[in-house]
TrEMBL record:
Part of the intact protein present: 481 to 774 of 774
Protein name from the UniProt record: HAMP domain/GGDEF domain/EAL domain-containing protein
Domain of life, per lineage: Bacteria
Domain named EAL: residues: 29-289
Length: 294
C-alpha cells in the first residue's frame, strides 16, 4: 500500500482515488495509468479508433460517424473506455489521449476525402480537457497544421460531443471554448442528454447545435410509454430551441419507427450499425449508401 501511495503521488492522483477501492483494484488502476502513459509515449500502439454511423432520418443517409477509442491491452484484452477515460482524466493523461484521437481522426478524414467518402466525424471530449481555456486554441492549431500539411485537401468536417458536466464544470471557460470552436466551423453536441443534473433552463443558455438523447431513454423505447413521453417532449423542446436531436442506442426497428414519428432528426445504434474500424466503414458506406430499407 505504501508503494501504491508513492505511485499515486508520482502520478498526481488524488488520495480519494485510493480510498475508493480495495488495494488490488487500486493497484490495477495505477498499473493501467502507468501503461497508458507508456502507450501514449510510443504514439498510441494498443489504441485504435472505431466509428459508428449516424443516419439522418430525413434523407436516410449516413452523413456522420462518431469516433470511439479502443484500448487492446496485450495481457488484459479489451479495456472499456469508461474505465481508461476516467483513469486518463484523473491522472492528467487525458490531454495527450485527446490529441492522439484528433490526430488519428484527421488522418482518417484525409483517407475518406481521397476516396470521395463524405463523412463528418464526431469526437468525444472529456470534462478535464474541455475545462482548460486553451483547449479550443490547441485544437484549432492542430486542425490548421493537419490541413496545411495535406495539399489541396479540404478542411476536416468535425463535431464535438460534450456532456453538460464537461461544459458546466467551468461554465465561463466552457462557453468561451464553444464560441471559439463554433466560430471556426466546428459543431458542438451535448452527449448523454437527460442523464444527471441536466435542467431545461440550462439548455436555453447553451449555444450548441445538437442534443444527443442518452441511450437509457432509447434502449427500451418500444416498450416503455414513460420513455416515449420523455423522448417526445424533449424532441419538441429541442426543436423549439432550434437544436437538432440525435437518439443513441437504437437497437430495433420499432424504436426507429417511433423516433421517426416523433420527428427525431437522426439516429445511431446497433440496429443501424455497431462501431467498426475505418476500413469496414468504407466498405459499409459503399454497400449501404441509402438506407431506405430500414
Ligand atoms: P458515448 O459517447 O455516449 O458513446 C456511446 C456508447 O454507446 C459507446 O460505448 C457505443 O459503443 C455504445 N452504443 C452505441 N450504440 C449502442 C446501442 O445500440 N446499444 C447499446 N447498448 N450501446 C450502444 P463505448 O464505445 O463503450 O464508449 C463509452 C463511453 O466512453 C462513450 O460514451 C464516451 O463517453 C467515452 N469515450 C469513448 N471514446 C472516447 C474518446 O475518444 N474520448 C473521450 N473523452 N471519451 C470517449
Ligand atoms: Mg458520444
Ligand atoms: Mg459520453
Ligand atoms: Mg452515451
Amino acid at each position: 500500500a505504501t508503494i501504491a501511495l508513492e505511485n499515486a503521488r508520482r502520478h498526481g492522483l488524488p488520495l480519494k482515488f485510493y480510498q475508493q477501492g480495495n488495494d488490488e483494484a487500486y493497484l490495477r488502476r495505477l498499473r493501467l495509468v502507468d501503461e497508458l502513459g507508456q502507450v501514449l509515449e510510443r504514439g498510441g500502439d494498443q489504441l485504435y479508433l472505431v466509428y459508428q454511423p449516424k443516419m439522418d432520418l430525413m434523407t436516410n443517409k449516413v452523413m456522420a460517424v462518431e469516433a470511439l477509442t479502443r484500448w487492446q491491452h496485450p495481457d488484459e484484452g479489451f479495456i472499456s473506455p469508461d474505465l481508461f477515460i476516467e483513469l486518463a482524466e484523473q491522472s492528467g493523461l487525458i490531454n495527450r489521449l485527446t490529441e492522439w484521437v484528433f490526430e488519428t481522426v484527421f488522418l482518417q478524414l484525409q483517407t475518406w476525402q481521397q476516396a470521395r467518402i463524405d463523412l463528418e466525424v464526431a469526437v468525444n471530449v472529456a470534462a478535464t480537457s474541455f475545462s482548460s481555456p486553451d483547449f479550443s486554441y490547441r485544437l484549432l492549431n492542430q486542425l490548421a497544421a493537419s490541413t496545411q500539411s495535406r495539399e489541396g485537401s479540404q478542411r476536416a468536417p468535425l463535431s464535438l460531443e460534450l456532456t453538460e458536466r464537461d461544459i458546466l464544470s467551468n461554465k465561463e471557460i466552457g462557453l468561451a471554448n464553444i464560441d471559439r470552436l463554433r466560430n471556426n466551423g466546428i459543431k458542438v453536441a451535448i452527449d448523454d442528454y437527460g442523464l444527471g443534473e441536466s435542467s431545461l433552463s440550462q439548455l436555453k443558455s447553451l449555444p450548441v447545435d445538437e442534443l444527443k438523447l442518452d441511450k437509457s431513454f432509447i434502449l427500451n423505447l418500444d416498450s416503455s410509454v414513460r420513455d416515449q413521453m420523455i423522448v417526445k417532449s424533449t424532441i419538441q423542446l429541442a426543436h423549439d430551441l432550434n437544436l437538432k436531436v440525435v437518439a443513441e442506442g437504437v437497437e430495433n426497428k420499432a424504436s426507429l419507427a417511433l423516433l421517426r414519428a416523433m420527428g427525431c432528426d437522426s439516429i445511431q445504434g446497433y440496429y443501424l450499425c455497431k462501431p467498426i474500424v475505418a476500413d469496414e466503414i468504407t466498405r459499409w458506406m459503399e454497400q449501404y449508401a441509402y438506407l431506405d430499407h430500414l
